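Let's do one together. I've listed all components of the complex below, 257 residues spread over two lines.
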Amino acid sequence: MTTTDESTRRIREVLADHGRLPVDVGQLSDDDDLFQAGMTSHASVNVMLALEDAFDVEFPEAMLRKSTFASIGALRRALAELETMEVPA
Amino acid sequence: MADRGPAQAVDATATVDAIAAVGAPVRVGVDVTAVAEVADAVAIFGDRYLHRLFTPHEVESCGGAAAAASLAARFAAKEAVVKVLEPSGARPPWRDIEVVRRPDGACRIRLHRTAASLAAEHGVGPISVSLSHEAGLAVAVVAAACEGPADGPRQRSTEQSNTGGADR
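Okay, and this is what the predicted structure of the assembly comes out as:
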């Protein structure tokens, strides 16, 4: 299981590389709305695919909702859930 | 530029006029996608990106020099359809919403699985689509008659969202 800090670091890295945000990802808080910060729906697809590569998971259809990709915190919680599902303790 | 053309624009307009004439509420969705973003995604993620978002027919019908622009228009169409379907929970997978290109070049929306169920649930009829791309941007407009209860406030909300540009 990836630690919270490591998860957050990787998510921020993916957002910087694929989120096409007009703001510095380092300035975004855990709860800042990524779509309000300028992430387009297409960029969120790239973020999803890059996170799948970085965390070796796959987002199931049930998680394809705007709220899953709405903030760094939401992404971290979704990824933690996926990691738990795919690598049972 | 296979997705453009006055015939499609006239077709969509005529459909909306016909819907208005019978008094059914109309839902309209619009979305815009940057062509360069799609080209980059294809270069970075390749087939995984294509297969996640597009059906085999869509990929096949987007061949040629304007492939990225055509794919971007189709992505915009899928997002525009989601705005019409208004899912309250998870959105339908992208491949459930298919842009079918007929031999004459005109495009139609075909819904599958979750998207088709949502349309039935909301009383959304056949969806007309018009696609265009220019200057690095692809845009799609979709319209459909809605046989469900009249939803004036919802239509006003959609209008505000689209003109405000916040819900892309």
